[in-house]
Design a protein that fits this description.
By secondary structure, this protein is α+β, with helices and mostly antiparallel strands. The protein is 38% helix and 18% strand. Strands 1-2-6-3-5-4-14 form a 7-stranded mixed β-sheet, sandwiched between helices. The radius of gyration is 23 Å and the shape is globular.
């Protein structure tokens, strides 16, 4: 199917969501984002800490995720499992997750239980219970999580763990965020205490409250529970920037459990903080290429040529778009029949990308992609828990929680020419290619080199978090 660009696309009107924001900053450095919405008797509480996989020191792969688990093992005022009991007895839910550049903890509660949620987060920010017993227990839990979600699962670590070492060069950007068994076992209580002192200070965190609450009352409770959390200087975040690739790097990974071959192609993206508009043009590009039956790669590569069974494209190697700082990755990936060479599928995808770069998208494609993205954004953030986390992560990564309201307007104003330029930036001579081949010994391989993966038809859905899965918790807690 041949697509031709129409005249310059008209800007479409996308309804904007109004998420009002109130900010405060405590004397200990804690940044607070308050987003009241009285439409339902529910409130979300989240704390985002500015530490993720990239901050892990060499020899301590998986440490950020391991520490996330430890934050659920009791605190200054609460024994193990009491956090779970207090949230669940209030009719609420909770969890935590580890990402490339941050770790978050969150509760969703009936609005009458807001103060309880604030107390719980302040109590473990002040002093989690880090003991040798808790550490040993959680090393076992994380190790079992790797065995369950990785070693027993096809396409483990594809592509979020396996592709970065092909594209990047530094330890921060290439290492396994789930962790190698030997690194997890080597962790000490002293390592954990140092990690807490360095990264888990109020000045390195954002507290977000979203939902049914009174701003003045919530502000009073926040001061009551967080003001006396000891102040410590936030660590200076190093730059994790790397030079862009100058050529093509390739690697083959043998997966004994994979039923069919797969590949992932990675390109560097514009800095999402410094060049948000350029980054969002790549979000639009990914949608036009692969979202929906009418998208270019779905129609040309899957339906018409039958070269692949699934294909996807878009920014974000782990948690989707806008979930990391620079450097981030645009990923083209596919599952394909064993008798079809990966090179043939990549060549067909390259042809569609080149066609889009030369002619630009049509007005219909541009409008459809903007509508699809915005509908998905609104649908996801209609949930108070998701909105609380979105506001917190945008405040942490971009310094502006208001972007959650503003991004639909930016997306709708991106022009076909900008999308064509984004397509042109996917240079076939400057990228990384990872190929997954079935075969080998199911018992072999590096046990720390994979992570959870989920596929949905016609859509790539990478595991967006590494979540705390506390074995001692009641069923359904995490």
């Amino acid at each position: 199917m041949r697509h031709t660009a129409a005249a310059p696309a008209r800007t479409i009107r996308i309804p904007s969501a109004d998420y009002p924001i109130t900010r405060l900053k405590l004397k200990n450095g804690l940044r607070v984002v308050l987003a009241p919405d009285r439409s339902a008797s529910v409130v979300g509480v989240a704390v985002h800490y500015d530490v993720g996989f990239r901050s892990e020191p060499q020899g301590r792969t998986g440490f950020a995720h391991l520490f996330e688990h430890l934050m659920f093992q009791g605190s200054e005022s609460l024994p193990k499992l009491e956090h779970f009991r207090l949230v669940q007895s209030s009719g609420g839910s909770f969890n935590g997750s580890t990402h490339t550049d941050y770790t978050d903890y969150f509760e969703v509660l009936p609005s009458a239980a807001l103060e309880r949620g604030l107390f719980l987060e302040a109590d473990r920010m002040r002093a989690p219970k880090i003991t040798a017993e808790n550490l040993a227990n959680q090393v076992d839990v994380v190790s079992e999580e790797i065995r369950l979600n990785v070693l027993s699962r096809p396409y483990g670590g594809f592509p979020w763990i396996l592709l970065p070492p092909v594209l990047f060069n530094t330890f921060a950007n290439t290492h396994d965020g789930y962790g190698a068994f030997e690194d997890l076992r080597a962790a000490t209580v002293e390592d954990c205490e140092d990690f807490f002192q360095k990264y888990y200070c109020p000045a390195n965190a954002v507290l977000t409250v979203c939902g049914d609450f009174d701003v003045d009352q919530a502000t009073g409770w926040i001061h009551q529970h967080f003001d006396d959390v000891p102040a410590r200087k936030a660590p200076k975040r190093p730059s994790f920037a790397e030079p862009w690739p100058k050529g093509v790097t390739e690697q083959v990974h043998i997966d004994a459990l994979a039923p069919a071959p797969a590949f992932a192609v990675g390109w560097r993206l514009p800095d999402p903080v410094k060049d948000l508009r350029g980054y969002l043009a790549h979000v639009q590009l990914g949608s036009i290429l692969s979202e929906g039956e009418a998208s270019r790669l779905q129609s040309a590569v899957v339906t018409k040529a039958e070269l692949a069974t699934e294909i996807w494209a878009g920014p974000g190697i782990m948690g989707g778009p806008l979930d990391a700082r620079d450097p981030d990755v645009f990923v083209l990936g596919a599952l394909h029949p064993i008798d079809v060479p990966a090179a043939e599928v990549i060549e067909a995808a390259d042809a569609e990308i080149a066609l889009l770069a030369a002619g630009g998208p049509s007005e219909v494609e541009t409008h459809r992609a903007a509508a699809r993205f915005t509908a998905s954004l609104y649908r996801e953030n209609d949930n108070f828990g998701a909105r609380t986390r979105s506001l917190g992560s945008l405040e942490l990564l971009h310094g502006r929680a208001e972007l959650l309201s503003e991004i639909p307007g930016i997306i709708s104003s991106i022009t076909p020419a900008e999308i064509a330029a984004a397509a042109a930036s996917l240079d076939p001579n400057r990228r990384a290619i990872l190929r997954v081949q079935p075969g080998g010994d199911p018992a072999g391989g590096d046990p720390g080199a994979s992570a959870e993966l989920n596929y949905r038809a016609a859509e790539f859905a990478p595991a967006d978090t590494l979540t705390a899965d506390v074995s001692a918790a009641p069923e359904g807690t995490i």
